[in-house]
Amino acid sequence: MAGLFEKYGGQSFWNRFLDKFYQRNMSNDTLEAFFSGIDVERIKSMNSSLLRAALGNGDEHFFTSIRRVHRNMNVKDAHFQIFYDNFVETLKEFGVSGEDFEDIVEVVS
C-alpha cells in the first residue's frame, strides 16, 4: 500500500480531504459537542500526520491510534462509527474508489 498518500496529490489533497471530513463531523448533531472549544486545525494537522504514516507505508493503524487517544473522553463506539462513516463518505466524494478505497478503509477500520 506504499504511496497512497502521494498518489492522490499528497499533502494538499489530504488537507482538502480533512477540511471536508471535519466539516462533516462538526456539523453532525451527535459529534458537534466534541469539537466545542477545540483547536480543530491542530487536530487536522495531527490526523494528517497519521494519514501520512498509515497510507505511506501501512505500518500505522489509524483508528487504533484515534481510539487510544480518546479512551478517557467518553467517546463511544457509536461516535466512532459516525466518524468512520463520515470518513468513508468523504473518500467517496473525493473520488477514491476501487482497490485504493478498499485498502484505505481497511487501514482505518
Structure description:
This protein is mainly alpha-helical and 109 residues long. 68% of the residues lie in helices and 0% in strands. It is built from six helices and no strands. It has helices at residues 4-7, 10-26, 40-56, 62-69, 77-93, 98-108. Helix 2 packs across helix 3 (40-56) and helix 2 (10-26) packs across helix 5. The longest helix has 17 residues, at 10-26. The mean pLDDT is 86.
* Largest pleated sheet: none
Find the count of extended strands (DSSP E, 2+ residues).
0
Mean pLDDT: 86
Class of secondary structure makeup: mainly alpha
- Oligomer state equals single chain
List low-confidence stretches: none
Order of helices and strands: HHHHHH
Number of helices: 6
Indicate the proportion of strand residues: under 5%
* Range of helix content: 55-70%
Span between N and C termini? Answer: 15 Å
Radius of gyration: 13 Å
Query: Any idea what the shape is?
Result: globular
